[in-house]
Structure formats: structure tokens, C-alpha cells
Design brief:
By secondary structure, the chain is mostly helical. The protein is built from two helices and no strands. Helix 1 packs antiparallel against helix 2. The model has no long low-confidence stretch (mean pLDDT 84).
Length: 90
Amino acid sequence: MNDAGRGEKKEKRRTVRLSVTDMGAKYQGALEAVLSIPIGAGIGYFCDRKFESEPVGLLVGLALGFGAFVLRIFRMRPPVAPRNDEDHSS
């Protein structure tokens, strides 16, 4: 086998590894986002039990968990390229 064929195989392996790494990062981010809501609810429930403030802690915990969920989803989105408005000048 010649050296050019080996180089092509190495390049294919590198792209596969990068895509698997990217997929792993996306799955990790999705898992963190989804788990933020029940974790916030659990902390709120714990605070309700400790301070005897029945629905307040749970509602605050759910709100904070949902906020963390939205923030994580927002950070996972791909970056947006700046738009060039010079083409649409009137």
C-alpha cells in the first residue's frame, strides 16, 4: 500500500473521532439540560421540608431548574455567523 492511501485513511479516522467527540459533547449538554429541572425541583422540595414552606420552595426550585434548562439549551446552539448587510443596500 502506498503512503497516499495511508494518509487518506488517517484523515477519515480523524474526522470520525471528531464527530464522535462532538456527539458526546452534545449528549452531555442535553443530559445536563434535562436533569436541571428535576434537580431544581428536588432542591426546592428539600427546602420545603426543612423550612416548612410547602409550595414555595418547590415552585422556586422548578423555576430555577427551568431557567438553567433554557440557559443550557441556549449555550448549546451553534454560533451564528455575522450577517453582511452590504449586499442589500438600497
